[in-house]
């Protein structure tokens, strides 16, 4: 019997909706939101009603009844660290997401919406391969301050999807490969995959690593502390400087790689230097991941929407192609991966783990 699946993936400035029949996409839509619209919400989780209305209006416009779905799956939010796999969304999970102990991201709103719709229409609501993914080796969890533990906070869903796709492409099991996967998007994550396990990577949300389109990445800690204690900024303002107004947005006033490249084409030398500086930091992070794998790297894979930028990837390749074969797999496979997870859950191929 055919299974109908609703997939929700909420990003910083987009609401992605997809409908699958089994694992075949019937409808895929990415609804973009103006930055100024998002800025009207003081807090990320305040967008819940705004995002839910958009989803419901879209489904109504398409003549789709929610009660016809067999499952709703959302991209996982920032809950407690979990191993890869499928999890039913619970109130405890939502409480952890809302606590913001491991950061805040709009994906958490999607979990909330999926859960409420699931409760209302008696439909299973699940997540798969959440971003706070607990596959790090113990050595990777040390931060240098005892009270702070490094956590895995990155694009785990797409990392797992791309790793599976690449392993199928070359006919070698993921569990037999050492990969460095580089997700290039609004956030940038560089992760060392060792024999089927994501053993180390940068906190792509609000922690460390290269700066990205809108995130600051690693910054000089002492100067950051002085800025926090200057009395000029609230905690929320400082968090926004790190996630949302950092990176390209901080230097160039835009988080659009396309706009940055247009400025470069028009002779903006500062934009060129900032863009190359981002590539430089990404390259250093790749080098770091290579040491985590003891130099035994089968491939470096570029994914995410900014991986379509030849200018950016060429900057990086020039510095890292000596490490291993570099493979371009631009775009995101998150919606397909989520749908496949939901289908495995529905047909009993994979059971949901306890949160």
Short description:
This protein has helices at 35-39, 48-61, 91-99, 107-121, 156-170, 221-228, 235-242, 248-252, 257-265, 269-292, 310-320, 334-346; strands at 4-10, 14-21, 24-32, 71-75, 86-88, 125-128, 178-184, 188-194, 197-201, 299-303, 326-328. The protein has 355 residues and is α/β, with parallel strands linked by helices. The mean pLDDT is 94.
Structure, described:
By secondary structure, the chain is of the alpha/beta class. Helices cover 38% and strands 18% of the residues. The strands form two sheets. A six-stranded mixed β-sheet has the order 3-2-1-4-6-5, sandwiched between helices. A five-stranded mixed β-sheet has the order 9-8-7-10-11, with helices on both faces. A hairpin with a 3-residue loop joins strand 1 and strand 2.
What's the shape? Answer: globular
Q: What class, by secondary structure content?
A: alpha/beta
CA(first)-CA(last) distance: 29 Å
Q: Radius of gyration, Cα only, in angstroms?
A: 20 Å
Key structural traits:
single chain, alpha/beta, six-stranded mixed sheet, five-stranded mixed sheet, 12 helices, globular
Write the layout of secondary structure elements.
Blueprint: E1 4-10, E2 14-21, E3 24-32, H1 35-39, H2 48-61, E4 71-75, E5 86-88, H3 91-99, H4 107-121, E6 125-128, H5 156-170, E7 178-184, E8 188-194, E9 197-201, H6 221-228, H7 235-242, H8 248-252, H9 257-265, H10 269-292, E10 299-303, H11 310-320, E11 326-328, H12 334-346
Parallel strand pairs: 1-4, 4-6, 7-10, 10-11
Antiparallel strand pairs: 1-2, 2-3, 5-6, 7-8, 8-9
Helix pairs in contact: 3-4, 5-12, 9-10, 10-11
